[in-house]
Amino acid sequence: MGTQSVFATMKGTQQFMQKAHWRVCEFTYATGLVFFSEAAPLVSHGSVDSKCPLMVKVLDAVRGSPASDVTVKVFKQAGDGSWQDFAVGKTTEYGEIHELTTEEQFVEGKYMVKFETSSYWKALGLSAFHEYADVVFTANDSGHRHYTIAALLSPFSYSTTAVFLLADTDFLAAGKMAFHSVFLVFLAGLALCSEAAPPHPLDAKHPLFVKVVDSVRGSPATNVPVKLYKESADGSWELLSSKQTNEKGGLPELTTKEQFVAGLYKLELDTASYWKSLGLNPFHHHADVVFSANDSGNRHYKIVVVLSPFSYSTTAVLFPDSYHRNTTKR
């Protein structure tokens, strides 16, 4: 094979891998369009709903069904900033949890709903990128309300949205509204992710690339504060880097190859400050992406997050370190 043919093959491989990343994103979004348009809660607690101020719904985008037996933990932030255990449950055959807490217990405060996604996928014999998915929000600061939080899961992507209504509102209707909200986020992501591929080859010195997209304005999300943490031996999070997305919504130099060793990492996107700077009142305090890196050798990671004030979606693709060498050799 001639030199020009080799280069053409390498270039074609690189383009294929980049397109594959966005096909994964598009597939997840398209799947969500189908599931969430039809996946409103199949059962209602009727009069019991008035006593269930927090409902959770989880769907499996791989099997096209409700995600049953997903462990969901709820934490409440204490005065010292620590997270205290608040409630725990598992999704039913309908992918739902209705009785995590009561009206009396669910007082004003900051809460975190944590979906144990990694253990769910491992139980199905699949490897997952995210260690878990979480939703952090302030509840009942403007009066008592009912909250519905929905999540669509796949091994390398997840999306979450929330709807809150006055306490006397039908909870079944709230669930349907949550799914319609995710439906809109998927529509936006389907259009945006196909155009959001990084224009440059992988950077050998910077193995982590982050891209953030604003689904409200249909554009890159600029100046979003992003922090990268690594888990320490004692389980605490050590801050490694703190930067803001550029004019293309990207962060190509968040860490270095020397710094990005094997371990558990967390990306924290300050979505609240981003939306507030645009005059909008968001639901989430921040969006987190928690993942293990380089546990099977050095790799390049590309993580994309699509934002809206009440929803966000994230997907990831991994490239072997040899991919960079093969596509940059001349």
From TrEMBL:
Assigned GO CC terms: extracellular space
InterPro entries: Thyroxine_BS, Transthyretin/HIU_hydrolase, Transthyretin/HIU_hydrolase_d, Transthyretin/HIU_hydrolase_sf, Transthyretin_CS
Keywords: Hormone, Secreted, Sulfation, Thyroid hormone, Transport
Keyword ATP-binding: no
Annotated localization: Secreted
Chain coiled-coil ranges: none
Entry's family note: Belongs to the transthyretin family.
Protein name: Transthyretin
